[in-house]
Design a protein that fits this description.
7-stranded mixed β-sheet, 16 strands, Fructose-1,6-Bisphosphatase, Chain A, domain 1, globular, 2 domains, D-Maltodextrin-Binding Protein, domain 2, single chain, 3-stranded antiparallel β-sheet, alpha+beta, 7 helices
Length: 254
């Protein structure tokens, strides 16, 4: 299934980059988050690809109309998609945006693919099968989280810093912090170049599902502050609570 997603992500990434390299307009949604033609084109391509791949599975996506909870609550398996995660970074043209595609089964993310079109890299992982990274001109490479490092390598949101995050990171002790956009933070922990990503403030299920599947496949964890794993499509709201993504429990302070 992960291999079948690669050409879908490649087509969506190519469409995003065509728009990224030219002039584009920026609209704003009701929550003031930005929206571009790249979001919509990627959504269209991914929706078509998933419909051809698994016509029986519904798709929950940031840029498509959301089914009401009375309908969603019956979904045992579904795709959770963010066609362009990090639109703010896309608008800033810093390259730190991704495509997130996750397969969720019984509220658990079991497969996740994250593509970074501007960087030409794709990450994917599946429960029980490990995690992988594909770079241009290279064969797929197996990736895995690293042991906890000292000082602790913390990654945080470039566009959504909060006082709560700062206070949490202070409790971690000696650390170095790097700001980076989108779901790339999960990728850095999965490939062993970061230790922990704390997130205080709202995120949506399509922001985290693919990253959680990838990181768990690489040996890491994503939990709420009470230690419970994030779960998907099990509530009317699609917002996550505060969470921490990490390589080893010794890297966190809860």
């Amino acid at each position: 299934m992960a291999e079948a997603l690669l050409p879908i992500a490649a087509r969506a990434g190519a469409a995003i980059m065509r728009i990224y390299e030219g002039d584009f307009a920026v609209q704003h949604k009701s929550d003031d988050s930005p929206l571009t033609l790249a979001d919509l084109e990627s959504q269209r391509i991914i929706a078509m690809g998933l419909a051809a791949l698994t016509p029986e599975l519904p798709v929950l996506s940031e840029e498509s109309a959301q089914a009401p909870w009375v309908v969603r609550r019956a979904w045992r398996e579904l795709w959770v998609v963010d066609p362009l995660d990090g639109t703010r970074e896309f608008v800033k043209r810093n390259g730190e945006f991704t495509i997130n595609i996750a397969l969720v089964s019984e509220h658990q993310p079991v497969l996740g693919l994250i593509a970074a079109p501007a960087q030409g890299v794709v990450y994917w992982g599946a429960r029980g099968l490990g995690a992988y990274r594909l770079r241009p001109g290279e064969p797929p490479a197996s990736i895995r989280v690293s042991p906890r490092q000292t000082p602790l390598r913390v990654v945080g949101s470039r566009s959504h810093a909060t006082a709560e995050t700062d206070a949490y990171v202070h409790r971690l002790g000696a650390h170095v912090t790097t700001g980076i956009g989108s779901s790339l933070k999960f990728c850095l922990i999965a490939e062993g170049t970061a230790d922990v990503y704390p997130r205080f403030g709202p995120t949506s299920e399509w922001d985290t599902a693919a990253g959680q599947a990838l990181l768990e496949s690489a040996g890491g964890q994503v939990t709420r502050l009470d230690g419970q794993r994030l779960r998907y499509n099990c509530r009317e709201t699609l917002l996550n609570g505060d969470f921490v993504a990490f390589n080893h429990p010794s890297a966190i302070a809860i």
